[in-house]
Design goal:
37% of the residues lie in helices and 26% in strands. It folds into 2 domains: 38 residues; 53 residues, Roll (SH3 type barrels), CATH 2.30.30. It has 111 residues and is α+β, with helices and mostly antiparallel strands. The protein is built from 2 helices and 5 strands, in the order H-E-E-E-E-E-H.
Length: 111
């Protein structure tokens, strides 16, 4: 081409070992996978284990908070449901998995 645009020629890649870019890419991907594991997966597994331990030790008389924020005393524990007494004579059946926190004894009286 003879006009206003000159021909473009490709330049050689900067020096270095052949395949070095691939090794850097593999190392970078490995670092991202490790970061992802330690920042997201591992903490979630820890929270799941803690919640399973909480659900396994629930017993009648415990005071708990549900994921909806309801505070009550457990009167009956089943396999998948528990019965919560939220006021005198007011009992609710709640899924066991919805219990988020075990409260200290006497919390209901102060609330």
């Amino acid at each position: 081409m003879n006009g206003l645009i000159s021909d473009a020629w490709a330049q050689a890649a900067p020096g270095g070992a052949p395949g070095g870019g691939q090794l850097q890419f593999i190392l970078m991907m490995g670092a991202f996978i490790l970061l992802f594991y330690f920042m997201l997966i591992r903490p979630q597994q820890k929270r799941t284990r803690e919640h399973q331990a909480l659900m396994s030790k629930l017993a009648a008389g415990d005071e708990v908070v549900t994921s909806g924020g309801m505070l009550g005393k457990i009167t009956d524990v089943g396999d998948t449901f528990i019965t919560l007494e939220v006021a005198d004579g007011v009992r609710l059946k709640v899924q066991k998995a919805q219990i988020t926190q075990l409260m200290p004894k006497g919390t209901l009286k102060s609330a």
